[in-house]
């Protein structure tokens, strides 16, 4: 709830700045589009002051301009509701402080599968599994137990549907913070820099000695990875591998 309150505060401050500028200089600050862009920029600036996570900057920048655009197009009311519902289903936990949806490439899935094989792992966890871009290919290729943790309803539903004929895959609709990592041989996560310190504390306190933690793209601050695997994909992804 604190995250949502910060977002509302940033929008309110952006609106206050816009109204003040329009009152001080109506000749310069006029027109709905110009004012919407100013409000978005001011709200985005205030979101950084309030220490919101970085993806909120884009949300604040686009919120009012997108609202005006939709009003200008005079779209049907059911379309507004459909868009809101879709965003809620995909980004369910974002307003509560969770990370947004990130998708791993097939090259990342291949690299993780290779590491799982090298570790001779029997139980694997994907934290924040999204639509199953790592968990599903791994379950198809390796006869190991896979737990995919995802809280957002729509990504969870997609992953569960993809895993319905994979008896070795279990898709859990729950927060990754509720997961006990003690039972896993290899744990994979593609999250956000904003949560890596907290995640490192969880990994360090719960995973057993000798097990492997793999973080896609984002290192754990203050930790030295056993290896860094460079992936040949569009994003030039790096996998940070930590031996517990």
Describe the structure.
This protein has helices at 2-24, 32-49, 55-73, 77-90, 106-119, 135-141, 153-162, 196-206; strands at residues 123-127, 145-149, 169-172, 186-189, 212-216, 227-230, 238-243. It has 2 domains: 2-74; 106-243, Rossmann fold. The protein has a 7-stranded mixed beta sheet, covered by helices on one side. Strand 6 (227-230) and strand 7 form a beta hairpin. The model has no long low-confidence stretch (mean pLDDT 85). The protein has 244 residues and is α/β, with parallel strands linked by helices. The chain contains 8 helices and 7 strands; from the N terminus they run αααααβαβαββαβββ. The two termini are 34 Å apart.
SSE layout and pairing:
Blueprint lengths: L1 H23 L7 H18 L5 H19 L3 H14 L15 H14 L3 E5 L7 H7 L3 E5 L3 H10 L6 E4 L13 E4 L6 H11 L5 E5 L10 E4 L7 E6 L1
Parallel strand pairs: 1-2, 1-4, 2-3, 4-5
Antiparallel strand pairs: 5-7, 6-7
Helix pairs in contact: 1-2, 2-3, 5-6
GO molecular function: protein-lysine N-methyltransferase activity
Protein name: Class I SAM-dependent methyltransferase
Organism: Candidatus Methylobacter titanis
């Amino acid at each position: 709830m604190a995250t949502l309150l910060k977002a509302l505060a940033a929008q309110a401050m952006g609106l206050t700045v816009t109204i003040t500028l329009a009152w001080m200089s109506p000749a310069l600050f006029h027109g709905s589009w110009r004012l919407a862009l100013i409000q978005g920029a001011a709200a985005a600036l205030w979101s950084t002051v309030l220490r919101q996570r970085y993806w909120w900057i884009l949300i604040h920048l686009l919120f009012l301009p997108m609202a005006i655009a939709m009003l200008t197009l005079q779209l049907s009311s059911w379309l507004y509701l459909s868009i809101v519902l879709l965003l809620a289903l995909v980004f369910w936990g974002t307003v509560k402080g969770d990370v947004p949806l990130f998708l791993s490439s097939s090259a990342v899935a291949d690299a993780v599968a290779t590491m799982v094989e090298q570790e001779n792992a029997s139980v694997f966890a994907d934290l924040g599994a999204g639509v199953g871009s790592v968990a599903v290919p791994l379950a198809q290729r390796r006869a190991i137990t896979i737990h995919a943790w995802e809280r957002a309803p729509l990504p969870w539903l997609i992953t569960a549907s993809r895993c319905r004929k994979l008896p070795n895959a279990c898709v859990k609709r729950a927060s990754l913070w509720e997961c006990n990592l003690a039972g896993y041989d290899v744990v994979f996560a593609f999250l956000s820099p904003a949560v890596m310190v907290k995640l490192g504390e969880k990994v360090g306190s719960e995973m057993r000695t000798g097990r492997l933690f793999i973080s896609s793209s984002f290192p754990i601050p203050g930790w030295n990875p056993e290896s860094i695997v460079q992936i040949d994909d569009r994003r030039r992804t790096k996998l940070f591998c930590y031996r517990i």
